[in-house]
Each structure stands twice: as C-alpha cells, then as structure tokens.
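STRUCTURE:
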C-alpha cells in the first residue's frame, strides 16, 4: 500500500465553501466507498479537491491531489477511526470544541469578518460549528490511532546512515547558506502612572456597562487592542485545563459569576476587563477588552540600558547567551530553546527569508558570526515596541546535503520513512478485518489496489 505524503499526515479536513455542499447535495451524489459502517460520498472527494485548489490559489508549484489519492486518504482515515473506536480511544468534548474554535478563528481571519464567512459558506457560524463537530472528532480519533501505531518507533544512527546511503548522489538536496541565530527579547514596562491611567479608564468601562450606559460589545469595538476582537468581539471559549491562555487571564475568568465583569487584570499581554458570559464546570465563555499601556522612549531606553549590561556580561564570558535568555527573556518559548530562531521544519539553521522579521534580516547583513548585537528596538507581531539582543552563532556555506551538517534533517526524514512503512504494514495486516466496498468507478485507482482486492474478495464470497 502506497501512503503518499498527503495521506501520512492524514487528509486535511475539507470544509469547501466554494461548492456550498453543506446546504446543497447534488442529485448525482452517492456512496462510492465504505469501511465498516463508515461511508464516503462522491461529494466528499469533490469538496476536498475544491478545498485544496482554494488553498493553493496564488501559490506556485502546488500539486493538487487526484481523486484517487483523496479517496485513499479518506479510506485510511475511516479505518483508523474504526480501530480507535474498537481500542476505546477517547476524544473529549473539550478537545473537539477547542479545535472547532481554532478552525472558526482561522476562517474568520482568512475571510475578514463573520458576515463574509457566513455569506461564502452559506451557513451561520452556529451551523458551521455543528457541521465541523463530526468531522473534527473523526480527524482527532484518526490522529490518536495513528500516533498509537507509530509512537514507539525510534531511529538509530546506523539506520539514519543506511537511509542516507540509499539516496542517489544526484538526488541529494542543495542547501543555500543558512544562519543560526539566537535572540533575547524584553518588553519595556510602561510607566506606573500610565498604567494607573489605563486602569482608571477600564474601571470607567465597567461602570458604563453596569449602569446600562453602554454595552460590553460596543466597548470591545471601541477600545480593545486585541487583534482578534474585530473577528470575535473579544469572545473566548475556555477550559480550566487549557495551557494556551495566560494563567492570570484564566484565573480571573473562573473567579467570576455569570454576567459579572472583573476589575482590570494584568497579564503578559496588558490589562484585561473580563465578562463571564456562561460557565459549565470547567468550561466557560468569556468576553474581554484588552488595553496595552503605551510605552514612552524613557521606558525603551531603560530596557536598552539594562540589556546592554547583560550584553557586557555575555561578551566578557561571565554569562552565556543561553543563561541570559533563561534568566531574562520575556518570550516564554525561548527559554526551552536558548532563544534559537527555528525554521518550519524545527531546524535551528534557517534561510534569511525564514528569519522572524525584516529588521533582523537587515541586522544580520551587518554582523559576523560569534557577534552579539547591541540592544535593538523593533515592533513585534502584536504591534508592541520590543528590545532584543541578537547572537549570530553560526553560518553554513551553500552545500549538498551531508550527514555532518544536516544529520538532524536526514534523521527526521528517515524516521518519517520508518513510520510510513510501519503504517503500511499495519494496514496490510488489518485491512482484511473490515468490510470494504469500492464503487466500480474508482476500482482502477492504483493507489487503493489493496483496498479494492479486499472489497472484491468480499463480493466474491457473497456470491457463493
């Protein structure tokens, strides 16, 4: 069984809006495949391909999977779901709702507003949530089952070398010059008088709502500095066990009674005014207004002066850059990586176009390896004035892939290859355990030949 790349990662959930297939099923729609009690419609395949095409618009070199490849992915997912149910793998409602919330936020960001999304989808947000629920549950069950199958698979250095040695020399990838960069990030703290002024403003917002002068939603539109507020009016679905939200924000939310508005709560993002909309056990729906106290040049210069003193400790070898990051960085994620900038594949060696912002690209052009920059002021992805030190640790020359410089990349590919083979072996062993039906229209697909053999064997048994 050939498990192509779009399948190994499992097929993307296809919520194609261009066809509006959620509201209109064409008459030609029919069941084209079955795995156990799970069926696949022709529209599932058509919608998936349409969704791939929509996502690929404006991108060059994107290969759209064929109907046969999409069907293969659908068959694999259905089988994994059946096995997950058999093995009593559980996906909680909280996990499903969090995934739905994330999906809705992504679509809102993509389409710009709730109104445009609903117009394109031909469905209300509430209806989309209902549509997504079954599909997301299936995807999560399949993900969990796949992880269970491959979770114990490891790769040894000997296997990595054997995998590398099988690659034809003329097929080895060429890498451009790459850089290894570390950064120590600090957010200047606002003057206390400015913070107090912002707090007083937020207390006035609360008074307006409690006095019936203004509605909370209107104040969100007018004053919130959370970029997502335009999309969701400051609303979040929370679960007490989530780790993605700021602890102060979570604690403040769950102290409230329904309808109650908090006093201003300080988090790492700024000050929040939180209103509890509803709560059920560990789940809560809240709305919030975020205000970020403005930073003056005095606070920026104070942070630059502090970071300059840290730089002196680093360049005189009294403190390593990693120690400084762990002790002083305001970026929580950096403390686990020593401040390393990583690429999309997790590598700490990146191309210049993978650096986090243009300011860093310009800076790197002026630095030499081993240098630590003076404190640099830049604007982060939340629009905040931020100060950082940048350590230009290393640079590679353009080269053909080799185990000395690219071992981690090769090892990652070797591990994925080993997992793919393990999945193929698992399916070859288990596929005969399922009732399989493949419509004659798709039986010429070479990608699903193993599935077709099982399906035809079942039909043959029925005829005797």
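SEQUENCE:
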């Amino acid at each position: 069984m050939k498990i192509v790349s779009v399948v190994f990662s499992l097929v993307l959930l296809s919520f194609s809006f261009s066809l509006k297939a959620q509201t209109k099923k064409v008459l030609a729609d029919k069941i084209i495949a079955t795995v156990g009690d799970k069926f696949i419609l022709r529209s599932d395949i058509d919608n998936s391909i349409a969704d791939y095409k929509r996502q690929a618009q404006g991108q060059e070199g994107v290969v759209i999977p064929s109907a046969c490849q999409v069907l293969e992915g659908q068959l694999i997912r259905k089988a994994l779901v059946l096995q997950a149910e058999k093995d009593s793998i559980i996906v909680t409602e909280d996990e499903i709702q969090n995934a739905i919330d994330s999906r809705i936020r992504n679509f809102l960001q993509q389409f710009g507003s709730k109104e445009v999304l609903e117009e394109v989808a031909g469905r209300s947000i509430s209806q989309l949530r209902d549509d997504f629920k079954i599909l997301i549950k299936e995807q999560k069950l399949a993900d969990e089952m796949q992880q269970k199958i491959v979770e114990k698979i490891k790769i040894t250095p000997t296997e990595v070398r054997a995998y590398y040695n099988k690659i034809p020399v003329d097929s080895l990838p060429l890498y451009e010059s790459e850089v290894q960069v570390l950064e120590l990030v600090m957010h200047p703290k606002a003057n206390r008088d400015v913070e107090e002024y912002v707090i007083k403003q937020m207390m006035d917002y609360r008074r307006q709502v409690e006095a019936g002068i203004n509605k909370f939603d209107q104040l969100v539109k007018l004053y919130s500095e959370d970029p997502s507020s335009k999309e969701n009016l400051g609303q979040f679905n929370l679960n007490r066990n989530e780790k993605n939200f700021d602890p102060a924000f979570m604690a403040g939310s769950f102290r409230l009674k329904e309808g109650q508005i908090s006093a201003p709560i300080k988090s790492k993002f700024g000050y929040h005014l939180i209103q509890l909309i509803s709560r059920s056990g560990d789940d809560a729906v809240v709305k919030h207004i975020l205000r970020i106290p403005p930073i003056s040049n005095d606070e920026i210069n104070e942070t630059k002066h502090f970071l300059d003193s840290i730089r002196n400790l680093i360049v005189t070898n009294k403190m390593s850059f990693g120690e400084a990051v762990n002790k002083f960085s305001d970026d929580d994620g950096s403390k686990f990586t020593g401040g390393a900038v990583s690429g999309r594949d997790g590598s700490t060696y990146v191309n210049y176009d993978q650096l986090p912002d243009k300011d860093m690209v310009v800076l790197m052009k002026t630095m030499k390896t081993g240098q630590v920059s003076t404190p640099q002021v830049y604007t982060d992805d939340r629009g905040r004035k931020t100060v950082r030190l940048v350590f230009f640790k290393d640079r590679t020359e353009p080269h053909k892939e080799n185990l000395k410089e690219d071992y981690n990349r090769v090892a990652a590919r070797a591990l994925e290859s080993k997992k793919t083979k393990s999945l193929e072996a698992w399916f070859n062993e288990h596929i005969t355990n399922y009732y399989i039906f493949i419509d004659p229209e798709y039986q010429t697909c070479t990608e699903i030949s193993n599935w077709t053999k099982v399906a035809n064997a079942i039909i043959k048994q029925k005829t005797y």
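REMARK: The chain has three domains: 5-151+434-463, 177-189+296-397, 192-291.
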